[in-house]
Amino acid sequence: MTIKKLALEDIQQRLPQLNDWSLRDGKLYRAIQFNTFNAAFGFMTQVALMAEKADHHPEWLNVYNRLEIWLTTHEAGGITERDFSLAHQMNLLLM
Ligand code: HBI
DSSP assignment, residue 73? Predict the structure, then answer.
């Protein structure tokens, strides 16, 4: 399935509605600090199941209770609707 990458203006217009995410290295970026490793890994497990369902996967780095996440769409060569959707779903899980 082909999907078009969003223009920089579109991304900048949408970002304010997506709390705690920013643009870094051309990807959507969020850093999260949990209280424990279990909390971080529990979140990652929930996201992993969502990601598999959507066939859209995060780039992330977990160190103990810290998690960094980068979202981009490889097949589009940039940020797409799918990245905004996954970021939004992650925000909902964290509410
Ligand atoms: N995840 N972030 C991201 N970007 C992709 O382009 C992507 C993916 N997960 C699976 C996927 N593409 C598959 O559609 C293909 O690689 C087959």
Answer: B
Could you tell me which residues are beta bridge partners of residue 31?
A: 68
Checking if the pLDDT of 1 tops 90, the result is no
Asked if 83 contacts 71 with a C-beta cutoff of 8 angstroms, the reply is yes
Whole-angstrom distance, CA of residue 50 vs CA of residue 90: 9
- Residue 80: which of 2, 23, 4 has the closest Cα? 4
- Kindly give the number of the ligand 1 atom that is closest to the alpha carbon of 71: 2
Is the C-beta atom of 14 inside 6 A of ligand 1? no
Best probe residue, ligand 1, of 2, 56, 70 (max atoms within 8 Å of C-beta): 56
Q: What is the pLDDT of residues 42-81, one digit of tens each?
A: 999 999 999 999 999 999 999 999 999 999 999 999 999 9
Which amino acid makes up residue 37?
Answer: F
Q: Is 75 in the pocket of ligand 1 (CB under 6 A)?
A: yes
